[in-house]
């Protein structure tokens, strides 16, 4: 009997074990190899004869190499050309990267499966850089050609050193010697959900006889993933519930009742309900950990402020953390305005009962910062507002009772843990996000939080109409953007023009410098897949680098605005299409006081058009702005677009969002834009978007680790399974938090934690 943690070198030839153990596979133990799942399966019978290949189609052929040549292109670059045949016809296979090409392993006479698109070159069919799987002789038909043709051949993620058939052979050796396997899933659970045991699952996934076998194995292995995750999360919740902290009870004579009675608007039902839930939790001697989800503009700030006032009334302090300085400053102003005299203790216009609001940001002057820090430390400031840096820089509080984190999608599990570890009496935590999160994502990524949702927008909100301005297909539409902006300004409104970058001139330096303003492919829902996100620089080099900035042609083709940055667009707009309007720039590389002044002027209506980067993405609240044009919108993720769009429609007048793109045709990017234009319902958008992305994009960074926890699970498709696993995990942890009677599961969880697999939302 073989144990799952037995090193492979005890069981396999030394040479094989060594190669498997090397990067990037790093398969060291029996479990490593058995969990190294086939990426897909070939059914030999489904292979295409070379004679039947059709130009332009993706095909898979099984062929023998008859010639293997290395040639030199006119540029001097070398490339490899194979001639292959399956007896029905010949084909050319070309590999352009000789150093890494599989051609090196395909000498004349060897056999391989080639998968790729068929095209024609010099009258001959060819595949360029096809996916290539060399076959060993023992993969041949043997005595039973029928069975051979019918079998599913696993195709493993492989390397040059260890190809897929070699991995298959090693797996076979293990499975032959594998006895009973300690199963992490309890037998009763397996019975209830009709899951095969782990050993069987390994057999079915590595040596299936049918698609059904693979499906049965996958369902079982998905359960392992889901249970591991949910047990980790259930244990977090369990630990949190065992933590003790100070209960913060409301006070009749406190600031909150006075504040409520003077609010200029009536709270929505949702705001009232969530408020009551939060108050009840704050009144417990157990730290609250709640996620408040709510559409852009649904009024989360006032909910947070009321929670903060509850804590202040109970003698504690509250911190409000924003993802960027711009937003922290805006929160500070907004909160001061909402509080009025209640936020001005010690000032002339104090209205008792009152507290003080302190702003702590990196760009404060030394004296202002000293004062703010002192007010936080001596408790003079009941409310402290800043960026996330507040936590890392160890700002001292007299009695921190509540931390509110705005725009959670930039705030990971690790930071939440840091908060909990911070004090002897850990603060209550309220996390807020407008990024729509599908339920299953909320349950996995934010599984340690309880969730509340504000579904209703305050009365008086206006609809937003969204249009895709495809300038590649309709060049004349570019002018309509500027025409629309002029119309809105003429009607007394204001506009945003958003660019994905500050400047197109200095390649590589176009990231916005302000920490949270950087363009990252989002890890959160609605983000973008690698290579097509705003962070990717795969677009054509902006022509501005060649000195053509004075013309409205930045990218390919006449008049194209592809790749344009704030610094080029603004002067061109100011002298051209928007001449006569008051135009200003806002981006992270501007000094903080300039950013501040620009925002203040825009808020006061002294600037008509703000040409900005995504610094305005979150929270910026200027109700008089009615139109937003997003340039190169295809470079943004869905949630970013949704956030940006939420900057308009905040007042009485209807909002307009124009999604400019220079991308032609039906691509994932243009599909994304069509989705955004089709609905303003964030939850619906999140579903649409999640459906188009791979799980790795959602779960993010740690998914590259060695023992990845989530490989098969699909957050959208496997919602039912994840819900079931959550329930099972909760029950299991409630009765046996240390998993004492489930050693195999405990081991899996420990392994997963070792790899820190739950820091999903590190980025984005
Ligand atoms: P978000 O949820 O996007 O953070 P905010 O908290 O910034 O939204 O609220 C957006 C605007 O709506 C603010 O100007 C706020 O004062 C206002 N607001 C909040 N609640 C209400 C309400 N119940 N009625 C009317 N206006 C409200
Ligand atoms: Mg907000």
Automatic annotation (TrEMBL):
Keywords: ATP-binding, DNA damage, DNA repair, DNA-binding, Helicase, Hydrolase, Nucleotide-binding. GO terms for molecular function: ATP binding; DNA binding; DNA helicase activity; hydrolase activity. SUPFAM superfamilies: Nucleic acid-binding proteins, P-loop containing nucleoside triphosphate hydrolases. Residues 281-454 form the Helicase ATP-binding domain. Residues 538-696 form the Helicase C-terminal domain. It holds the Pfam family DEAD. Gene3D superfamilies: Nucleic acid-binding proteins, P-loop containing nucleotide triphosphate hydrolases. Residues 537-547 have a biased composition (Low complexity). Residues 524-536 have a biased composition (Gly residues). Residues 507-551 are annotated as: Disordered. This is ATP-dependent DNA helicase RecG. It comes from Pseudofrankia asymbiotica.
């Amino acid at each position: 009997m073989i144990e799952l943690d037995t090193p492979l070198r005890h069981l396999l030839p030394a040479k094989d074990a060594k190669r498997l153990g090397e990067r990037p596979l790093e398969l060291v133990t029996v479990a490593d190899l058995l969990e190294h799942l086939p990426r897909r399966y070939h059914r030999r019978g489904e292979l295409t004869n070379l004679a039947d290949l059709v130009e332009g189609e993706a095909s898979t052929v099984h062929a023998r190499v008859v010639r293997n040549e290395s040639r030199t292109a006119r540029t001097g670059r070398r490339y490899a050309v194979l001639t292959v045949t399956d007896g029905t016809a010949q084909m050319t296979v070309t590999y352009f990267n000789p150093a890494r090409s599989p051609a090196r392993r395909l000498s004349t006479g060897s056999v391989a499966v080639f998968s790729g698109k068929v095209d024609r070159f010099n009258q001959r069919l060819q595949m360029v850089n096809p996916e290539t799987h060399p076959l060993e002789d023992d993969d041949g038909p043997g005595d039973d050609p029928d069975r051979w043709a019918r079998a599913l051949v696993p195709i493993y993620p492989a390397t040059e050193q260890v190809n897929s058939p070699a991995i298959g052979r090693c797996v076979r050796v293990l499975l032959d010697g594998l006895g009973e396997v300690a199963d992490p899933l309890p037998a009763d659970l397996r019975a209830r959900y009709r899951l095969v045991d782990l050993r069987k699952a390994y057999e079915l996934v590595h040596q299936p006889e049918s698609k059904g076998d693979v499906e049965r194995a996958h369902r079982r292995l998905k359960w392992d993933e889901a249970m591991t995750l949910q047990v980790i999360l259930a244990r977090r919740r369990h630990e949190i519930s065992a933590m003790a902290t100070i209960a913060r009870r409301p006070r009749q004579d406190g600031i909150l009742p006075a504040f409520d009675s003077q609010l200029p608007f009536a709270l929505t039902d949702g705001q009232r309900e969530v408020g009551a839930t939060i108050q009840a939790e704050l009144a417990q001697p157990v730290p609250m950990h709640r996620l408040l989800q709510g559409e852009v503009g649904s009024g989360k700030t006032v909910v947070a402020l009321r929670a903060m006032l509850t804590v202040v009334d109970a003698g504690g302090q509250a911190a409000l953390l924003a993802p960027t300085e711009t937003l922290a400053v805006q929160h500070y102003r907004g909160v001061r305005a909402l509080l009025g005299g209640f936020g001005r203790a010690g000032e002339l216009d104090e209205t008792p009962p009152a507290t003080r609001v302190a702003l702590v940001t990196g760009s404060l002057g030394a004296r202002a910062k000293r004062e703010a820090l002192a007010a936080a430390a001596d408790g003079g400031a009941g409310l402290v507002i800043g960026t996330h840096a507040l936590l890392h820089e160890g700002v001292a509080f007299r009695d921190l009772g509540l931390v509110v984190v705005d725009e959670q999608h930039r705030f990971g599990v690790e930071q939440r843990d840091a908060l909990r570890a911070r004090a002897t009496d850990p603060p209550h935590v309220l996390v807020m996000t407008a990024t729509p999160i599908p339920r299953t994502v909320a349950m996995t990524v934010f599984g340690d939080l309880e969730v509340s949702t504000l579904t209703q927008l305050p009365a008086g909100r206006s609809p937003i109409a969204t249009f895709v301005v495809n300038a590649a297909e309709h060049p004349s539409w570019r002018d309509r953007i500027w025409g629309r902006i002029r119309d809105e300004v003429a009607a007394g409104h204001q506009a945003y023009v958003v660019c994905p970058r500050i400047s197109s001139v200095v390649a590589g330096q176009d990231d916005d410098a302000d920490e949270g303003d950087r363009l990252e492919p989002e890890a959160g829902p609605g983000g973008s897949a690698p290579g097509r996100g705003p962070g990717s620089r795969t677009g054509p080099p902006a022509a501005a680098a060649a000195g053509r900035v004075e013309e409205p042609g930045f990218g390919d083709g006449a008049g194209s605005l592809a790749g344009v940055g704030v610094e080029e667009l603004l002067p061109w707009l100011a002298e051209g299409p928007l001449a006569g309007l008051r135009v200003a720039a806002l981006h992270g590389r501007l000094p903080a006081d300039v950013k501040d002044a620009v925002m203040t002027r825009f808020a006061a209506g002294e600037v008509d058009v703000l040409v900005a980067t995504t610094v305005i993405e979150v929270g910026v609240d200027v109700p008089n702005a009615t139109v937003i044009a997003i340039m190169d919108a295809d470079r943004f993720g869905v949630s970013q677009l949704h956030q940006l769009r939420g900057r308009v429609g905040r007042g009485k007048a209807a909002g307009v969002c124009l999604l400019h793109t220079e991308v032609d045709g039906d691509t994932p990017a243009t599909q994304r834009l069509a989705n955004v234009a089709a609905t303003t319902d964030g939850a619906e958008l999140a579903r649409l978007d999640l459906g188009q992305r791979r799980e790795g994009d959602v779960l993010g960074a740690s998914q590259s680790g060695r023992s990845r926890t989530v490989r098969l699970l699909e957050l959208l498709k496997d919602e039912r399974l994840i819900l079931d696993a959550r329930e099972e995990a909760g029950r299991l942890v409630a009765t046996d938090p240390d998993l004492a009677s489930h050693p195999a599961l405990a081991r899996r969880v420990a392994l997963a934690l070792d790899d820190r697999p739950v820091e999903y939302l590190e980025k984005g």
